[in-house]
Specification:
The protein has helices spanning about 10-20, 50-60, 95-110, 135-140; strands at about 1-10, 30, 40-45, 65-70, 70-75, 85-90, 120-125, 150, 155-160, 165-175. It has about 180 residues and is α+β, with helices and mostly antiparallel strands. The protein starts with a strand and ends with a strand. The relative contact order is 0.28.
């Protein structure tokens, strides 16, 4: 089985800006540079033949390059028990359209469309019951604003789960039209 997702990779200056703010929450599992990405869609676990069909279908996605700007921070999870800390993304029609086209390619390849609503973000930490409160971090970084970047490609990643968290490997790179 292959655990896959499709994502954009922010450029080095944006990733470094995120790495620079990763502190101040006891017990948080901060993402490292290799883990920083903006998920377009999560595929999940698939057998090799379907993974190959997905890779082929994604190669047919055509789309102009979207402009991405990370702004603000937030949490995913129920109140009082968040599981993820994220940097948000300003709304961009091109980014939303790219996510829709990626989802359509997955559907055409025979993979069920994800049930989640597209909420563009970059996860910066994983939290659990032993993590300290995130309120001070959220207040401090509510005005987070990273330089805008133009995404020139999107990627199919494979995720390997391990004792120290997930490790991501690029399976394929798909250039976007200038």
């Amino acid at each position: 089985m292959h655990r896959l997702f499709v994502a954009l990779r922010p450029p080095v200056p944006v990733r470094q800006g995120l790495l620079d703010i990763m502190q101040g929450i006891a017990g948080a599992r901060w993402q490292d540079d290799e883990q920083l990405h903006l998920t377009l869609t999560f595929v999940g676990e698939v057998e090799r033949p379907l993974a190959e069909d997905i890779a082929t279908a994604l190669g047919r996605v055509t789309q102009p390059r979207p402009t991405v700007r990370l702004r603000g921070t937030g949490l995913f999870g129920p109140p009082g028990r968040p599981h993820s800390l994220w940097a948000g993304c300003t709304p961009d029609p091109g980014l939303t359209l790219l996510a829709q086209r990626v989802t359509r390619a997955l559907t055409l390849a025979g993979h069920a469309a994800p049930a989640r609503t597209f909420h563009p973000h970059v996860t910066i930490a994983r939290l659990n019951r032993s993590s300290g409160p995130a309120d001070a971090f959220l207040r401090l970084h509510a005005g987070l604003s990273m330089p805008a970047f133009v995404a020139d490609a999107f990627f199919l990643y494979e995720s390997e789960l391990g004792r120290d968290g997930a490790r991501y490997h690029v399976v394929a790179r798909y250039p976007l039209a200038p």
